Amino acid sequence: MNALEIRDLAVRFGSRQVLHRVSLDVPAGRFVSLVGPSGCGKTTLLRTIAGLVRPSAGALRLLGRSVEGCSREVGILFQEDALLPWRTARENVALGLRFRGVSPADALREADAWLERVGLGGFGAYFPHALSGGMKKRVALAQVLATRPRLLLMDEPFASLDAIVRSLLEADFLSLVRETGVTVLLVTHDLEEALLLSERVVLMSAGPAARITHLYAVPFPYPRDLIGLRADPTFGHLLQQIWADLQREVARMGWEVPA
Amino acid sequence: MRRAGALIVLLVVWEAAARLGWVSSLLMPPPIRVAAVLLELMGSGRLWPHLVVTMLEAGGGLVLGVGVGVVLGLAAALVPPLAELLQPAMTLLNAVPRVILAPLLVIWLGIGLASKVALSFLLVAVTVFFAVYSGIREVDPRLVDRVRTLGGSGLHLLREVYLPSVTAWLLSSLKVAVGFAFTGAVVGEFVASSRGLGYLLSFAQSTYNAALTIALISLVVAVTFSIFAAFERLERWVFRWRREQPFAEPLHAPSAGGASAGSAAIEEEAVQTSRSAAN
Question: What are the chain B neighbours of A127 within 8 Å (beta carbons)?
Fold first, then answer.
């Protein structure tokens, strides 16, 4: 069964066609990455699935039901943290539960448990302002996972972090996501990140009017050794292949890519 | 501390200038005489009824003005058709010097409390309206998206995002509003009244009593300044979430599913560092 089915989805902003006939299936329980050149509409696609952008045509089915607007089955992790600055870490994590009618005391108790799971037990009373970038990402993940979404969307969640923090977070995020069994659609422009984390990579063409052009299966079983995997010959081979396709895609649009 | 020092220096120079005859002590009576007049006024009990009247007028105008300003500002920002109705009226009211309405208000509402409260209210409400209106329109759209995608309703959005963001704008406009509230009350009393600090002031002016005039001005300044300071404290308390210094990026990997003993120790250290930075 597919957690997400997209058929001929189109999005236009005024006269600008951003997405054109995008079709994509994300099987339930899988981790799929969406890669593509900058500005190709990856983020727009994600925001459309999350219900923040209204499609101009096409169908969007979530767990077999067509959806309009924000669904409570979908969680999204944005590129920039969007924690409420006037709420403490635990209050932020409890937010989605409170929106679902959980009592404040129960919601906070559950929030504490989630903070513990993302490695931030004991930081619940801090305001986001006092937390480092990586810690805020952990809070944001706890906030989204606490609502127990069936589909987790991630929009380059690690883009603003330095390399060390980033690889720590990638490993922790991956193991948590596997534990919860949630279906994931990750948008990234980092091909290595896509290959390290996901089971399937989807390549989107360059905009304007972007669509999906290639699909790749990533054959590494979980749990993965994210450091050792980079040395695997299959990993290098896949990386080269996606790079080649991506370059061809971008060249077709008359743009340049760094080799 | 430095400001208090500057004030003392100013008072000493002024006192000396008056005593040495550099300035006319009729026009610029020395601070000690002004203080004596003020103390006499307080001691005789003649001041209090006037002070109470002015405080009531300014306080009434402030409370009503903030209340109406917040409600109208929220309504205009969240209901676009209302904005089209309200914004031109408010812009017009904002453009004219609103104190010129004082004589009209006296004709409509009499020389008692009501006309001063009304003037004070008009000055405050327009200021607060614009603070709230623009505050809501500048809400961080990422926070709106966050609350909506977490399953929040319109009411949740109002409580979790719009009201807290607008508080920042409201609190800084409140400090300006305090000054406006007293302007409204005192100017209203200048125009027509039988009580209040503005009434005392115009009496002092008509008898060319500079010492009394300066004493009353200092009193009004002291009252508004203490309210101003109280709002500043309130602002610091409301914005306590801005105070703490951010943590450095931790160089440990807290394992998902519970921190190990080693990383817990480092966390402990990070907490202490942050506390000492906050102190």
Answer: 240-242, 244
Q: Is residue A69 a contact partner of residue A86, using CB atoms and an 8 Å limit?
A: no
Q: Is the overall model pTM greater than 0.95, yes or no? A: no
Q: How far A194 CA lies from chain B's nearest CA (Å)? A: 21
- Which residues of B are less than 8 Å from A162 in CB distance? 249
Q: What CATH number corresponds to the domain at position A60?
A: 3.40.50.300
Closest CA in chain A for residue B257: A117
- Which of A70, A78, A132 comes nearest B249 by C-beta? A132
Residue A49 falls inside a structural domain: yes
Contact B241 A117 (CB under 8 A): no
Q: Is residue A137 part of a domain?
A: no
Are the beta carbons of B188 and B199 closer than 8 angstroms? no
Domain that holds residue A227: 1-73+152-158+183-259
The residues in B 129-188 lying below 8 A from A, measured between CB atoms, are 140, 142-143, 145-153, 156, 160-161, 164
Domain count for chain A:
1
- Got the DSSP string for chain B? -HHHHHHHHHHHHHHHHHHTTSS-TTTS--HHHHHHHHHHHHHTT-HHHHHHHHHHHHHHHHHHHHHHHHHHHHHHHH-HHHHHHHHHHHHHHHHS-GGGGHHHHHHHH-SSHHHHHHHHHHHHHHHHHHHHHHHHHTS-HHHHHHHHHTT--HHHHIIIIIHHHHHHHHHHHHHHHHHHHHHHHHHHHHHS-SSSHHHHHHHHHHTT-HHHHHHHHHHHHHHHHHHHHHHHHHHHHHTGGGTSPPPPPPSS-PPTTS--HHHHHHHHHHHHHHHHHH-
Q: Is residue A208 part of a domain?
A: yes
Q: For residue A138, tell me if it sits in a domain.
A: no
Q: Could you state, in chain order, the average pLDDT of each consecutive group of 10 residues for chain A (259 residues)?
A: 90 86 91 87 90 91 85 90 91 95 95 94 91 92 94 90 88 92 92 94 80 90 90 93 88 58
Residues of B in contact with A87 (CB under 8 A): 160, 241
Cβ distance B150 to A143 less than 8 Å, yes or no, reads: yes
Domain ranges of chain B: 49-238
Flag if A130 and B267 touch (Cβ within 8 Å).
Answer: no
Nearest-CA distance A158 → chain B (Å): 14
Question: ipTM of this model?
Answer: 0.89
Q: Is A76 on the interface with B (CB under 8 A)?
A: yes
CATH architecture of B49-238: Orthogonal Bundle (1.10)
